[in-house]
Amino acid sequence: MIQALRISAIAIACLMFVAGLAASIWAIAGNPLPESLPQLLSENMSRSGVEHPVTAVLLNFRSYDTLLEIGVLVIAGIAGISMAKTTSLEDPELRTSDSLLYALQRWFVPLMLVLAGYLLWAGADRPGGAFQAGAVLAATGVLMRLGGIPMEFIRPGLLLRLGLALGFTVFLLVALASAIGGDAFLAYPPAMAKTLIVVIESVLTLSIAMVLLALFVSAPVNDAEDPEEGGSS
Amino acid sequence: MTLWLMAGLLFTPLAWAVLTLLTDFSRGRLVSWAGILVQVLVSLGLWLAVARDGGFYYGLGGWDAPLGIELRVDGLAVTFVLLTAVVAGACGLHAGAYIDPDKPWHRYFWPLFWFLWSGLNAVWLGGDLFNLYVGLELISLSAVGLVALGGQAGALRASLRYLLAALLGSLAYLLGVALIYGQFGTLSIAGVATWLSDHPVPSGSGMALALMIAGLALKTALFPLHRWLPPAHGIAKSPVSALLSALVVKASFYIAARLWLELGQPIGSLAAAQLIGLLGSAAVVWGSWLACRQQRLKQVVAYSSVAQIGYLFLLFPLTFSVSETVSLQAQQGMTLQVISHALAKAAMFLAAGNLILSVGSNRVDALAGVSRFLPFSLFSFGLAGVSLMSLPPSGGFAAKWLLLQASLGSGQWWWVLVLLAGGLLSAAYIFRIYRASFLESSGTDQFFHPSRSLEVIPLILAMLALGLGLASDQVLTVMALPFEGEGAP
Predict the structure, then answer these.
(1) Which of A116, B64, B294, B336 could form a disulfide with A133 if both were Cys (CB 3.0 to 4.6 A apart)?
(2) Do A29 and B182 touch (CB under 8 A)?
(3) Is the ipTM of this complex over 0.90?
(4) d(CA B231, CA B252)
(5) Average confidence (pLDDT) over B325-334
(6) Is the peptide bond before B393 cis (omega within 30 degrees of 0)?
(7) Which of B7, B21, B103 is the closest to A78 by Cβ?
(8) How do residues A177-211 score in pLDDT, each as one tens digit?
(9) How far is A114 from chain B, CA to nearest CA, in Å?
(10) Structural contact between residues B71 and B60, judged by C-beta atoms closer than 8 angstroms
(11) Within an 8 Å CB–CB cutoff, is residue A79 touching chain B?
């Protein structure tokens, strides 16, 4: 009885919230926009170094957001591997020895690598870019992992940490170089904008894939313990 | 010059996060000492620059708002940047000596610490709604990572709960940001405020502000959304608890306050302001009451944070539809409360960590005999308590004095009762710890004595909290500096 009351109260609250949200979205949709950001964006596209507006926003106009977002991904990766037990990562028992899967992989893995490269390159003038390419690359890694292909570099050693930090570091160095060059933090020189964006996107792809793969591979299997301060154990 | 300071401020924490990720804990500690020094110098430099020349907008990547992201560097922001440098620097130094370098998972402490710091700086300086969201994410995720670091089931449970609460808060905030963007076509807070100042308020914007403030209130652990805070702050390592209580909860409050001060008057309503004030008052009373009843030392300090955060939310009713003077008093009181609570609570958590280290137990009743054999650690704890109880001349006293004047000046006398009750209740939970420590269980000293460097850091922070009341005028003048090019950068 109490359970049913609780569920119906929660349901009513959710419905009221959705109704309120819908009402304000309806009201907002009726108002004219005081400022047109898309128009401003298209006026400045020629100075951005790329042709696709999403990539221009992510890596030039609002590159500070992207820099910090990559930081968030690195944090997630760090938090993930900080809880992982080193030895279990290459546990042979976790590997499948399915010959069909193995055969399929020989077709899929190269194809997916090419697809990731294409997505990265496509980001310049159509939907695509580092995040999509990184996701595909990570999926390739997951497939390889499930199929039992050993991946030494994914152990939580220096190599993994280097890989996690690579994209972020290059992005940060570009930001610093622009500050040393006399412009603002993260201001690309217009002539080099395209080159820099391509370099940043490429290393970001690697690091994003590394973070996602590290989170998958090092799913927390933690029996290393650190007792609470002053706790009994 | 300011360009260099800005680049240094934004760059060093991120760079140090990468550097320390590549080393182990002991070498990371050396690297971090250098980083703390740089960060303190840069923050001090920027504070002096703003104190001399006034605030400014800083467009990142050479793009101005609304196309790019602009940072708002004003007196309040640089004051909080400097506060962060002091408190986080102290916590970092304390952690270097406190945390066991031999456990392999502790190598991840420094990168998370530096990412947390960069997120805090991003939030204090942020003038763009989405950029503030990213800053909040940096802070929340690194804070969750720090709570979970190497922990047992209890720590993992607390950090997962923290993560879910923080994510829910972030999503509510993000939904509000999306509505604001749909309404006004810009993400710059200054842009929205400028547009609102000479246009009527469009319908439907109340929901956006309500969602953002509700999300931020959840992240700040405002009563009744506070249940995630005590487990997470209580179970983390003491330097981490100090960072979380002193700075992390302030970041989400700071955004809520900025939004309210810029957009509250046109979009908000009297009922909403009074409701938030009421929840803040409930937090003061309920948090203090629960703090009196906790058996474990760090839980007492954590519930005290719930109570002290409640005072901050009195800003909302005290700045809505009141005279200019009252609003200024309330803002100054809120700022002093943030600063003094940050210093005092960091000191208290660090001192609590030292006490737990000494007695080998986290229970309050295990403190018997501490006052005789470990007077130094207890002294820092008590000094911090003076500021929390808001006795003169502490910063807590100056803050509550200003809030009291603002309540009386605006005729909202009911908040005075909250201020008085809160002061009495905080005295109750602090004296309870004292009482436990003055009991004598045995005549011999069986305690572990922490090193001097561990003892000195909380003492300095507690002294700063105490001295803030004397220096509050200087602090408040920098905050109230004129802002060049208001609204139109």
Answers:
(1) A116
(2) yes
(3) no
(4) 19
(5) 87
(6) yes
(7) B21
(8) 877 776 677 777 777 778 888 888 889 899 999 88
(9) 30
(10) yes
(11) yes
Q: Where are the domains of chain B?
A: 270-489
Q: Out of A26, A64, A184, whose CB is closest to B3?
A: A184
Contact B202, B272 (CB under 8 A): no
C-alpha A51/C-alpha B167 separation (Å) is: 34
Nearest to B470 by CA among B410, B393, B415: B393
- pTM for the whole thing? 0.92
Per-residue pLDDT tens over the stretch A86-130: 444 455 555 666 778 778 888 888 999 999 989 888 877 777 788
CB contact under 8 A, A228 and B362: yes
Q: Do B60 and A71 touch (CB under 8 A)?
A: no
Q: For residues B182 and B202, is the Cβ–Cβ distance under 8 A?
A: no
**Per-domain residue ranges for chain A?**
2-29, 46-217
State the SS3 of chain B. Answer: CHHHHHHHHHHHHHHHHHHHHCCCHHHHHHHHHHHHHHHHHHHHHHHHHHHHHCEEEEEHHHCCCCCCCEEEECHHHHHHHHHHHHHHHHHHHHHHHHCCCCCHHHHHHHHHHHHHHHHHHHHHHECEHHHHHHHHHHHHHHHHHHHHCCCCHHHHHHHHHHHHHHHHHHHHHHHHHHHHHHHHCCCEHHHHHHHHHCCCCCCCHHHHHHHHHHHHHHHHCCCCCCCCHHHHHHHCCHHHHHHHHHHHHHHHHHHHHHHHHHHHHHHCCHHHHHHHHHHHHHHHHHHHHHHHHCCEHHHHHHHHHHHHHHHHCCHHHHCCCCCHHHHHHHHHHHHHHHHHHHHHHHHHHHHHHHHHHHHCCCEHHHHCCHHHHCHHHHHHHHHHHHHHCCCCCCHHHHHHHHHHHHHHHCCCCHHHHHHHHHHHHHHHHHHHHHHHHHCCCCCCCCCCCCCHHHHHHHHHHHHHHHHCCCCHHHHHHHHCCCECCCCCC
Looking at the partner chain, which of A30, A44, A78 has a beta carbon nearest the beta carbon of B111?
A78
Which residues in chain B touch residue A176, judged by CB atoms under 8 angstroms apart?
7, 11, 15
Give the one of B112, B179, B206 whose C-beta lies nearest to A75's C-beta: B112
Distances (CA, A) of A107 to A56, A113, A140, A171, B198: 34, 11, 11, 34, 63
Residue in the block written with tokens 């939580």: A156
